[in-house]
Amino acid sequence: MSEATLIAAKQVRERPLPQPPPALPQRGLAPSQLGMLAFLASESALFCTLIVVYLAYLKANQTGPTPAVLSLPLVIATTVCLLASSITVHLAMKSLRLGSRSSFILWWSATIALGVVFLLGTAFERRELIVRHDLTISRNLFGSTYYTLIGFHALHLTAGIVAMLTVLGLTISRLLTIRSRAGAELISWFWHFVDAVWIVVFSVVYLAGR
Question: Domains of the chain: which residue ranges?
Fold first, then answer.
């Protein structure tokens, strides 16, 4: 083998290997986020159906209690609490992105507390309607559609509070880190959705429906 061939072979061996192109940042939504959006879309269809049914039967049966028995001041107070919880959950997620664990716990706990206050107000309102006005789910069409619509919203809010309590426990035990905040973010999406649904329900049931 000639000396020129040996030199050429040595140059080939010493030539640096080509580097792979740099990884491009992920664009679009993650599969978990797409799944949550699909779930929220299906829940939107459910609530739209319940609201349409409520409006359809609102004036169909006037026997017994009517929407006039609903306590507007109480619901306004609980609505303010629920809307404020959208602000606190936003601040909680902002704190998580900035790496402030203590601030996240504070605002996340405040969101849970506001949600519990709203549920307590809903329970008190239901008790008053049953005890003072004898409005049960089987009393008339208004009672049936009202309790179904409000009950489904309360069920979704309860599920959100349970999920938030789980995240809070993981955070306090230091099992939730900044890198694993995807679950908390999806729960915050769900919470904003529940708040948005309530704005529509409140407008239909307690304002337009009266």
Answer: 72-210
